[in-house]
Fold Chemotaxis protein CheW.
Amino acid sequence: MTASDSRASQPGGSSSYVTFSLADETYAIDVLQVQEVLKLTEIAPVPGVPDYILGIINLRGDVVTVIDARRRLSLPVREPDEASRIVIIDVDNQNIGILVDSVAEVVQIPAASIDPAPAVGNDQTSRFILGVTSSNDGLTILIDLNKLLSDEEWASLREL
């Protein structure tokens, strides 16, 4: 059972999400999949990988692949700055870093306030949108990390 399945079986409940910014929009990922948040560090490029893979970092002796969230979500690319962060996530017992513009906070989002993903974008980008919620601060797009990459892409990451 995934975290998403768990929420679905608890009508009326709420879950915690880590929110982050990309291209002036707010995104959220399940806090249970976040291992830690790092300041930007040196990322060693790996030749011959897809453009959304920035490279690898050494995280206390473990090699962690870092994905550019902007490229993966088909957003305009920009250079990282002081606010940029690498969010270390756990997907199927594999730690992956995702580079985001900034990390905001942990929020509680009631399951009842999550609307289905709108039919926008293409299948490549819309498949990892879990849903959308709105508040006084604007819209927050919930990302399904398990669908951020295809099965083949996850398998190729394990080989790096």
User: Anything to note?
Assistant: Residues 1-10 have pLDDT under 50 and may be disordered.
